[in-house]
Design goal:
With about 260 residues, the protein is of the alpha/beta class. The protein is built from eleven helices and seven strands. The strands form two sheets. It has a five-stranded parallel β-sheet, sandwiched between helices. α1 crosses α8.
Length: about 260
């Protein structure tokens, strides 16, 4: 099993996204997987020019930038892999600009003039399954406590799976990173015992990917559990300004 993680974090190997990927890969490697991470932050990725050069008959699937940047190299690594992890932090309620710029370049891996219907009955065009059709994991992380924060990214990859006929074999969502010191402040982490359960679940997720090609629902639940639990009543009270002041003051003391 060859697993490729594409890390969209602007911080590259120094970010929390890379930290979570490493946790998964520890389990995957123990189970015999060959693991590799591509940090988009260290790659040259030119934005798609929408010039349609890659869709012209004489230059089909060849991007005007393929000899000028690193995207073709990344595509080749995707082609050689059995499974891909799309990993990104949340930036302004979406995936990172690095990840989206890279995914836009998948335009050159298709042919808009060739009509097809996906397995789910969606009208689409030909895409290179060797690149776009690999089973994949969605890994999203953010500092915010709210689950609403990650919904756009998760939704994007659900749609990606439907149109690319690619199996989404796991969805990992990690919130409240900064508030709990996840991956950076071991002393602060000790105040939140559930974090260690989460890290064990990421290790187990890696093992399951290597052995079964997917992450079980049980492991996903453990990996995605809330590290900071906010009772529903507090959520309701938080709409009132006096309560907001109290919560903000407590948050300041934690930081």
């Amino acid at each position: 099993m060859r697993i490729l993680a594409i890390n969209g974090s602007h911080r590259g190997k120094n970010g929390y996204t890379a930290f979570l990927i490493d946790k998964m890969f520890q389990g995957a490697q123990v189970a015999g997987a060959n693991c590799e991470t591509i940090n988009l932050a260290s790659m040259k990725i030119t934005p798609c020019a929408a010039c349609q050069h890659c869709h012209a008959t004489e230059s089909l699937s060849h991007c005007i930038y393929e000899e000028k940047d690193d995207v073709l190299e990344i595509f080749n690594h995707m082609r050689e892999s059995d499974l891909i992890i799309f990993a990104t932090p949340v930036y302004v309620f979406s995936m990172s600009g690095k990840m989206k710029t890279f995914l836009d370049r998948l335009h050159s891996a298709g042919n808009a003039d060739t009509f097809m219907i996906t397995k789910q009955g969606l009208f689409f065009h030909y895409v290179d399954r060797g690149i776009c059709g690999k089973p994949f994991v969605t890994l999203v992380c953010c500092d915010n406590l709210e689950s609403e924060t990650t919904k756009n990214v998760v939704g994007y990859f659900k749609t990606y799976a439907k149109f690319m006929d690619a199996n989404n074999v796991g969805v990992l969502i990690r919130t409240s990173g900064a508030a709990t010191g996840q991956g950076k402040d071991p002393e602060k982490e000790q105040s939140f015992p559930r974090i260690q359960e989460v890290y064990k679940a990421y290790y187990q997720a890696g093992k399951e990917l290597a052995l079964n090609g997917r992450i079980s629902r049980k492991t996903q639940r453990k990996a995605n559990q809330k590290v900071i639990h906010i009772p529903p009543m507090i959520k309701q009270l938080a709409r009132f300004k006096p309560v907001q002041k109290i919560i903000i003051e407590k948050e300041k003391k934690m930081m």
